[in-house]
Amino acid sequence: MTAVKDSVHDYISLDPVAAELVDTPAFQRLRHIKQLSTVRLVYPSANHTRFEHSLGVYHLASRALSHLGVDGDRAAHVEAAALLHDVGHGPYSHNIEDVTHRHTGKYHDDVEGLVARGTVGETLEDEGLDPERVAALVEGDGEFGQLVSGELDVDRMDYLVRDAHHTGVPYGTIDHERLIRELTFVDGELVLAEGNVQTAESLLLARALMNPTVYQHHVARISKAMLRRASERLLDEPDIDAEELRRMDDPDLLVALRLTDSTSAFAERLATRDLYKRAVWAELPNVPDSIIDAEHDTLAAFERDIAAAADVSPESVILDVPSRPSMTESSSRVMVNGEMRQLERESPLVQALRTAQEQQWRLGVYAPREETERVGRAAADVLGLDADGALVAEVRSGLNATLDEFE
């Protein structure tokens, strides 16, 4: 066994198969992809990578399988899937995944091609493991796929604790040891055993608190939106395609952006943290459904219309519309009085957290600092926003001196 010292789980023991997989180029690439991407522009110590997170997921999967009494070939496949679950990530983690998905139809958990070919596939086959079976588990297929990708998966258990640890934000701290110890299967469903409604709530609460504080912090969202725009422009160039972009790591992408005329300005802004500012910051009830549910091309057309109305360059306007609020963890299953039930049926917390999530939702329109007021007024008009409920830059101008320090 190979022992690896980890900042969250102390020592992680890798069996010979895992040790071989860790040494493959596909896995080593994860050393160069930050776990939280642009969040590190808010929390300076959030420099951890997909590499260490993947080791943590493997560790928790091994512990969960041990508690569940699963060993042998079945356990080996699940452990391999847990270790390899993030090898499909593109540069800057989730930040440009929507961009590459529009061109390739693939998300990060579509790893069949990666694990079936090259040294990863060879290693799996040499160890008697089926690459297709491992890829299916990564996508959450089958009974044990739930452990890798599901409402009670070990992926979520690791990243919440790890992200909280590296940002210094306490909200993601969960009792992952208890969560693992209380996992069981009932009729093929991964559930928490009797008496664990509060245990399930802790996972839900941690995610709900980390979301606005870390994952959806406005600076992280602005930099993510800028990176997304730059990546779209990069794909307009003839020398690069989405599959190539998808296989880059963080430094690769930043270099490509710097060396391309149409994206070099964005690269410089991201590298020096000279970010766009909020021209509009609008709450959910004040945004028309047609905007919230609009497709990418429609949103791009709105950006052009806003730029024209504000008389600024199209590159000066970025419209950032998050998905509608969702809470997948609320469908986690727990045993109550001998019956398998969804958490949302048993927890009064769920509705309160849903309400909080809806209240925290914001549409953003971003622009260079000197153009925020013009862009804000134009955006409110073009998008048909409720001016009383949308925080427009013109209204914010008196606050900017205070806010800029933290942006």
From TrEMBL:
GO terms for molecular function: dGTPase activity. Residues 46-169 form the HD/PDEase domain. One of its GO terms (biological process) is dGTP catabolic process. InterPro entries: dGTPase-like, HD/PDEase_dom, HD_assoc_2, HD_domain. SMART domains: HDc. Pfam families: HD, HD_assoc_2. PANTHER family: DEOXYNUCLEOSIDE TRIPHOSPHATE TRIPHOSPHOHYDROLASE, DEOXYNUCLEOSIDE TRIPHOSPHATE TRIPHOSPHOHYDROLASE SAMHD1. This is HD domain-containing protein. It comes from Haloferax volcanii.
